Amino acid sequence: MPPSIGLIICSQRTPRAGPQIVTFIHNTIRQFYPPETATITTIDLAKWNLPLYNESGMPSSINSADEYEHEHTKAWSREISRHEAFIFVTPQYNWGYPASVKNAIDYLFHEWKGKAALVVSYGGHGGGKAAAQLRQVLQGVRMRPLERMVELRFPEIEEVKRAAKGEDLGLNVHDTNRIDAGTRHAGTLHSQGNFMSAAYDSLFVMRMPGCIISYYPTGLFFKSAYNHRSTHCIPLLYYHSSLMVHFISLFYTLVGLLPAAALPSPTHHTLETITCDICILGGGSSGTYSAIQLKDAGKHVVVIEPNNRLGGHAATLYLPDGNYVDYGVEGVFNNELSRNYFSRLGVDWKPLLPLNKRTDFVDFSTGERVNPAAGILQALVSTFLYRSSIKHWTFLTRGVYDLPDPVPEELLRPFREFIEEYSLEAALQLVFLFSQNVGNLLDMPTLYAIQNFGVPHVDALIHGYITPKNGMYELYRQAREILGSDVLFQTNVIATNRSDSGVEVTVQHANGTRQLIKARNLLITFPPLIKKLQGFDLDEKETELFQKWFWRTYYVAVVNNTGIPDKLWVTNTDPTNGLGYLPRMPFDFLLQYMGAPGYSTSKLVGDMDFTEEDARDLLAADFARMKAKGTYPIQDPQIVVFGDSSPETLMVSPEEIRNGFYRKLVIYPISARYNYSVKLNDTKICLHTGSDFEVALKNLKLWPFFLSRKSRLFVNHSPDTTDNRIYESVLRPLIQATI
């Protein structure tokens, strides 16, 4: 029997838009996949008699429907019990979800417990806040909601009004052949697009009669092809192949969380086994670099990438006039390793030179211009004094968390105290330029500040940087050609099983088929958060360590039609915040001109609960304040591309550092029988590298550190092998282990 999935209409209002949106979702699933994939049942809360909770007992103490007092509760219990997973489709009312769905959830406990869930939200702002709140509630009844959610955003107030009246929104599932799959390459839509983005997690744009459709992973926007203002000339959510890919991918991730017994017959959904030397999870900068190096060493690698492109946070927006905007990684250290890697990929490079631009300092919280905390000459001089003040911690110049025992207490004190003690206030402007991802920098342990901007980073300012002549994404376009079928795109890990002889990785593709990969070694290049390791065979020690992380959310945007002059950087500067005039979280750090007339980039940082919707609202509010104060002739700013680089900068508390957290996370080579592992006490797991285990610049990267935006790598190496540390400490042992 195929698994049963309940599709819940969370709104009970009359009139309402919920039923037609749910029908649209249901038809989307059915267009792509046959009924044997899953049984989809619509559950309309408006048709269920569920008064405010009126059972005398606690749901968590009731184990069967017959134990409830009221018939409506018994019926509700039986309905929920017969489904293995749920898709909650909720509107956003006043920044929250409807009370009706909370009441429906609260009636039960065991009927929900352990089941997978996907949240789809809709509204004038996309419903991100409602979805996040609902996801927390689902976790509270021990469900397993997907981390990623789908937001369907109404383009203008007129569509909001139509939805509120229950009027037809024109939600039709159109023939997918309208958009030839051959026109898509590496996450772009070429044939019909005036804009192209190489970032799957940000934007696709295509031109249709009179309109430009901009796809984000959280929804679609419609803009006039002539003035870039939002318009409703095409029905809301006019069907687009990228939205299909995103939603269906999440749908099959949902199915993948179902119990094995509930899944369709393996004879229809399992492909042949792949055997390889190294399986790499993640095709970002570190995963791609590792794959190329290992392939060149004669190893058979298989890269598992959830999206449909390589590159991770290296994102490039290509414009109709031939210009482009790199809004992720901008360049790399100019050293032999970087140049050799560019040459290996056949990518031409150029020096990444400072633009002929000026910098304005503006308090984004008021919109007014302010004076900087220090002049540029003071900042440069103080930065080299900063280098002198930290160089004696030689274990940090290696770019890793290879910490002594005990960890020097000075490194655990707030960075503010370190700056004050050594009178380095003037250096903060430059330090923060490369460390804004840490958030409230002055409040964080000094260790994290230095790991994000340390001796190697200061030295790199002297030697300079290089960047591809045709945008950072060119590296990954070329890498894709070289790796070919060794990369499995739109594929997620369902389970892992480790043994002395290697590791077995079960993956699921976007079309629902599963595949077993048998590898001698496993390289994980994504942040090791518990929520990202669902299905991995973690033991108690691993789980205990990985659940201690906290992090920052980090969003990037490309905006146009702002009214801010070209060749200008606008730096967020808060004179009320003491040292360095650094902004407080959440903040929009910098509006940065990147060389394409009319376009700027923005980087927004917040705590773990800072959502995409919050970030968009903050950016709009910053522009509004500048306009109100007359600081710039702000016009009608439009977000052309929006990307999510979270989680950023994994950290633990000073107490955890003091108690040896990083000593328990040391990569070391052991016998060939165990290949190459991470040591967590005496527990063996696979090798971890990537964005949160390496140390490098945030936007101007070091290739030995895999060009990663967020970087910390637990690797031991000699201080005099800086340029080859990753190869010598990670890749060479992997190569030797598979000989």
TrEMBL record:
What is this protein identified as?
NADPH-dependent FMN reductase Lot6
Q: Which GO terms describe its molecular function?
A: FMN binding; oxidoreductase activity
- Domain of life from the UniProt record: Eukaryota
Tell me where in this chain the Amine oxidase domain is found. Answer: 290-532
Instruction: Tell me where in this chain the NADPH-dependent FMN reductase-like domain is found.
Output: 4-148
Q: Name one GO cellular component term.
A: cytosol
